[in-house]
TrEMBL record:
Its EC number is 2.7.9.1. This is Pyruvate, phosphate dikinase. Keywords: Pyruvate, Transferase.
């Protein structure tokens, strides 16, 4: 069977297109597409992602055999278009071999440039170009990349220095220069020889001279890079399946390092940090590929306005800027105009912000990549709204363009204005990724992880970051680097993570060994506090207080748009008036869950609560409950008032009683005194409450069944609070929820107590308040018998934490001991307590909704577990026709967006 594995492109033609990203990877598909729409791209070909999977099945030799004919034909195709030949001494073709998955994974996999060089080809190129510096600069880069990536020279321990970098340092010293670019031709030649010797010494292998052999080595190395550690970690973080595989794009080299009319750069059609509709980017004259992002030389701005803003932040005068750091717009005006026109064309073609790579070879502009740019949450919202206003996309597309999870960033704290005005700026870097962060300084990724695990907030301070630092960056509150521009690794990755980052703070001196950073004469040690403003690039000494964000501007507009399309409402979980207000500010349409147990923990309340539990008879319990009543009433009143006019779903006491009683001698003595009994008596009672399996023990409605006085007291507190509010002219809408039922009889009996108490309260108060009685569906048996339960319940609230626990039979308190192994062995893809298991638990939910509504068509259904703020779970709730999802206040906007997306996708 001849399945097509190779797709060529070049000179305005292509076998692939943008729709084929699954097969050609994002990079390959867009390289094809750019050819089709008239953007200049060097010719080449792409090997499919399926071939990568095949590689893992059949191995290197077999894959080469399977690919051989197609790759040879594709190489000839490129040779024809380039009018040069692979390995030819007179007129050689050099190529790059690049990775590219379906979803972009910037910097995670490997790329090899300048492939096709050997000693003879290099000499031939020198004759042809008359530019030996360029030729040997390219050659030494190639040997280094090939050695690292294909021949495994890259040190396994990330702290070890790349052996090639050591050699470069040594040769620079010998020649007496500081920068790579100042290396002489002889030094570059020497590097090539020394590199090859190092390869031979370390691996025993000779560097391959035959370009075709080089090519196969590189292609297979790119396949292998799909499974390198950092790529695997990145996929885990981004939820990208291992099965996707990477495509390999091979394309003719164009050279940005051929002299002063050559350059290379990275640019964005809009600002990826704040979303501003302003073309921007960075470039370097006489440089190649990675130089711009590697953070080795600080790149210059592409646009004049970008350059001016940059200079202003860096405190550089306009004269100095123009003389030393001109923008591309000023230095290469014609090329700039062409670049600007093409970036605009690409944005209009893809209807989204583009992130592009380009190279200028001796005055000719080439595009090497375009993709929908990664952006911060702030930029995501602004760009979606701007594109909508500009008429480039419609409302539904605008909603779908925003990733719910990313809204998280907009909800993160910003610096408190007052605290900020008093804070001391110690240095200034580039505003690489917005937001505010403060924490303790750490210098290594491992330390960031360890400190974070110990509960510290940390700021990771680095000279520059590399893909190896990923896990550490993820654990940090913010990242500060000494080197690198707005498109450096640190900046791009931080923006992707929505993490505050200040890059290129050139005035800081990091000493990894001593674990110190010197800033303007002051030495900061590991563990010292600093604060970063990723929006301005400013760095502050100490801990600058932050404050909560608010819903306004584009964000508000997006949320209103969501409400226009959504069918599923979003409520908030709130146990305090403060949380209730916050949830409401973020657009919650009521409270989906108020847990009453937390209310018992403060001050005098816990004493009365303990007294109630430890009492030996009903009279003793009622006495204690009477003390609790006013506290509970006040709590409920505050919450109902904060949610005036909206439903507030209050759950009766749920957790096992032993959680409330004192287990220490001191606490027991206090209770003995309070209740006038012996400490031994108290101990006996405490011990009697111990359970082997508290999660499945005396909790939930089982408490109300055995101690009906508790249910009565809580009902009385809720409804008295409601009556009082109503008398004050308010409109309280309480719902009383019975937790953890497994049979309808539990609900029936609790309901009888609630109804009876309600009657009493309304008579006492001389006023009635409308309220509802519902139940949690969180025991599988409750879901299975939903049609019976719906006879008694006015609403169902799915408690998916317990439902997951009991459906899987995983204790949610103990899952940590085996979850990692289950994920590793791919038995579980995700933690089912975070992402709802639609297949199993979902079936119970769907069935309960359907069967419940069959009995009671107006039955209201909602979710109140952790899953209520997780986008895929929220979408599931919308799909099965629930009325609302409820989540913590900070996740309300996320759930609103997910709910709207579910409606739009439908
Ligand atoms: P990544 O996915 O890590 O960005 P790329 O495959 O895009 O890796 O390549 C790394 C760098 O090399 C980029 O700056 C890119 O523009 C440059 N590059 C890749 N192919 C070529 C080529 N054919 N000619 C010139 N530069 C290239
Ligand atoms: Mg790239
Ligand atoms: Mg529960």
């Amino acid at each position: 069977m001849s399945e097509k594995r190779v797709y060529t492109f070049g000179n305005g033609k292509a076998e692939g297109n943008a729709q084929m990203r699954e097969r050609l990877g994002g990079k390959g598909a867009n390289l094809a597409e750019m050819n089709l729409i008239g953007v200049p791209v060097p010719p080449g070909f792409t090997i499919t992602t399926d071939t990568c999977n095949e590689y893992y099945e059949v191995g290197q030799d077999k894959i080469v055999e399977l690919l051989k004919d197609e790759v040879n034909a594709a190489v000839s195709h490129v040779e024809e278009l380039m009018k040069s030949k692979f390995g030819d001494v007179e007129n050689p073709l050099l190529v790059s071999v690049r990775s590219g998955a379906r979803a972009s994974m910037p910097g995670m996999m490997d790329t090899i440039l300048n492939l096709g060089l050997n000693d003879e080809v290099a000499e031939g190129m020198c004759r042809k170009t008359g530019n030996p510096h360029f030729v040997y600069d390219s050659y030494r880069r190639f040997v280094q990349m090939y050695g690292d990536v294909v021949l495994g020279m890259k040190p396994e321990n990330k702290e070890d220095i790349d052996p090639f970098e050591k050699i470069i340092e040594q040769v620079k010293k010998e020649q007496g220069v500081e920068l790579d670019k100042d290396l002489s031709v002889d030094s570059l030649k020497r590097l090539v020889t020394l590199f090859k010797t190092a390869i031979k010494d370390q691996t025993g292998a000779d560097f391959p001279n035959d370009p075709i052999e080089q090519l196969w080595g590189a292609i297979c190395a790119v396949f292998r890079s799909w499974m390198n550690e950092r790529a695997i970690l990145y996929r885990k973080m981004e939820g990208i399946p291992d099965e996707w595989g990477t495509a390999v794009s091979v394309m003719a080299m164009v050279f940005g390092n051929m002299g002063d009319t050559s350059a290379t750069g990275v640019c964005f059609s809009r600002d990826a940090g704040n979303g501003e509709n302003l073309f921007n980017g960075e470039y370097l004259i006489n440089a190649q590929g990675e130089d711009v992002v590697a953070g080795i030389r600080t790149p210059q701005q592409i646009t004049k306005i970008g350059s001016q803003r940059w200079a202003e932040r860096a405190g550089i005068s306009e004269e100095e800027r123009v003389a030393k750091y001109p923008s591309m717009e000023e230095a290469m005006p014609e090329l700039y105009a062409e670049l600007d026109a093409l970036q605009d064309k690409l944005e209009h073609h893809y209807h989204d912000m583009q992130d592009m790579e380009f190279t200028v070879q001796e005055g000719k502009l080439w595009f090497l990549q375009t993709r929908n740019g990664k952006r911060t949450g702030t930029a995501m919202v602004k760009i979606a709204m701007d594109l909508l206003h500009e008429g480039m996309i419609d409302e539904k597309t605008a909603i779908l363009r925003c990733e719910p999870q990313k809204l998280d960033e907009l909800l993160h704290p910003v610096f408190d204005k007052l605290a900020l005005s008093k804070a001391k700026v110690i240095t200034q870097g580039l505003p690489a990724s917005p937001g505010a962060a403060c924490g303790q300084i750490v210098f290594h990724a491992d330390d960031a992880e360890a400190w974070h695990a110990d509960g510290h907030k940390v700021i990771m301070v680095r000279i520059e970051t590399s893909p190896e630092d990923l896990a550490g960056m993820s654990a940090a509150e913010g990242i500060l680097t000494a080197r690198g521009g707005m498109t450096s690794h640190a900046a791009v990755v931080a923006r992707g993570m929505g993490k505050c980052c200040v890059s290129g703070a050139g005035a800081i001196n990091v000493d990894y060994k001593a674990k110190t950073v010197e800033i303007d004469g002051t030495v900061y040690k590991e563990g010292d506090y600093i604060s970063l403003n990723g929006t301005t690039g400013q760095v502050y000494a100490g801990e600058v207080k932050t404050k909560a964000a608010e819903l306004s501007g584009d964000f508000k507009e997006l949320m209103e748009l969501c409400d226009k399309y959504t069918k599923l409402q979003v409520r908030t979980n709130a146990d305090t008036p403060h949380d209730a207000r916050m949830g409401r500010e973020f657009g919650a349409k009521g409270i989906g869950l108020t847990r009453t147990e937390h209310m018992f923990f403060e001050g005098q309340k816990i004493i009365a609560m303990r007294e109630m539990i430890l009492a030996s008879d009903v009279a003793g319990r009622e006495k204690a409950l009477a003390k609790l009543l006013p506290y509970q009433k006040a709590d409920f009143k505050g919450i109902l008032e904060a949610m005036d006019g909206l439903h507030v779903n209050i759950r009766l006491l749920d957790p096992p009683l032993h959680e409330f009683v004192p287990h220490d001698r001191e606490g027991q003595e206090i209770m003995a005194k309070e209740m006038g009994v012996s400490v031994t008596e108290i101990q006996k009672r405490v011990n009697s409450l111990a359970e082997n399996n508290p999660m499945l023990g005396h909790r939930g409605c089982r408490l109300g069944i055995t101690f009906p006085e508790i249910t009565a007291m809580q009902t009385r507190a809720i409804l008295t609070a409601a009556c009082e509010l109503k008398k004050e002219g308010k409109n309280p809408c309480p719902e009383i929820m019975v937790p953890l039922i497994g049979t309808v009889l539990e609900l029936k009996q609790q309901k009888a107590i609630i109804t009876k108490t309600a009657k009493e309260v309304f008579e006492e108060q001389g006023i009635e308040v409308e309220f509802e009685i519902g139940t949690m569906i969180e025991i599988p048996r409750a879901a299975l018998t939903a049609s019976q339960i719906a006879e008694e319940a006015q609403y169902f609230s799915f408690g998916t934490n317990d439902l997951t626990q009991m459906t899987y039979g995983y204790s949610r308190d103990d899952i940590a001991s085996f979850l990692p192994a289950y994920m590793e062995k791919k038995i579980l893809k995700v933690d089912p307590f975070q992402v709802l298991d639609q297949e199993g638990v979902g079936q119970l939910i769907e069935m309960a909704v359907k069967n419940g509504r069959a009995v009671r068509p107006e039955l209201r259904t909602g979710i109140c577990g952790e899953h209520g703020g997780e986008p895929s779970s929220v979408k599931f709730c919308a799909k099965v026709g629930m009325n609302y999802a409820s989540c913590s206040p900070f996740r309300v906007p996320i759930a609103r967006l997910a709910a709207a997306q579910a409606a739009v996708e439908e």
